[in-house]
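Anyone have tokens for Putative gluconeogenesis factor? Sequence:
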Amino acid sequence: MRVAALGGGHGLYATLTAMRYLTPDVTAVVTVADDGGSSGRLRAELGVIPPGDLRMALSALMSAPAALEARTDGRGRTHRGGHRLWAETFQHRFGGRGALAGHPVGNLLLAGLTEILGDPVAALDELVEVFDIDGRVLPMSSVPLEIEADVSGLESDPRISRCIRGQVAVATTPGKVRRVRLLPTDPPACPQAVEAILTADLVVLGPGSWFSSVIPHVLVPGLLNALRETTARKMLFVNLAAEPGETTGFSVERHLHVLHAHADVLRIDDVVVDAASVPAGRERDHLVRAAEMFGAQLHVGDLAVPGRPVHDPGKVAALVGELCEGEVSRYAVRAHES
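Reply: yep, here.
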């Protein structure tokens, strides 16, 4: 089964880990609007696509259960733990107080390869090949993007909205985000990402930072068109809880209404939520109607890590496997026959 997973940050990391329980053919399509921390510094100094979320996606595919099995290299040597060491190294941040402080090793490696090869996709593909990673990681756009948001609650008059710019500013605003835009306003979609969506059997969107990691995908015209044209089954995973700043006070239903306001032409097959985040009763009935705005069916299950507002990859994989049981079996047979 070919899977395209759209998102960014820790949400996409969990999704990729879950999908790798089901298939090795997973393509990550990653947001490229980060302007904070190491990514922001490298973006400003080198003009490269911010590498942080791309690095995390690579690390997720390296850290997937199958990737951590013992592997035999070209010299016949067996390496226990598979990619574990390199996955940890990619995520390792330099300490100290100098110029390298805070930079993850993977960010520097990806930025360096991009400069040498002149193409971020070529750099990502090279890392996938060198480290023998199952799957692929792609940026959603071929250029670095900026997020601009209309935010209320920052002025004495609550009716007045202020325009703020930058992913970090949007993610940490004390106001209420009303709408987001991308700059440039008509960003080019990564052609390989478009192809991955069009040829996928399953497309997964979310979870993640709603305004800065999930909604940006539907603001790239090429990606939105691909999502409309693909014959793949499309699943939306909604966050377990509101995020301080970006979606403070948001209900699960509100997440869906906001996404629909940014892309009312988007059609989805399945909206998936955690049972504990939406109690049975009137609130869940409202959520069923919100899912119907996308033409989607609502699915509720136990998806969270106990005691933490994060998705459990194993539970997510199990639910997706149940929903796609017929498809998974069919694709397994097809792969065996080929």
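The longest strand covers residues 176-183.
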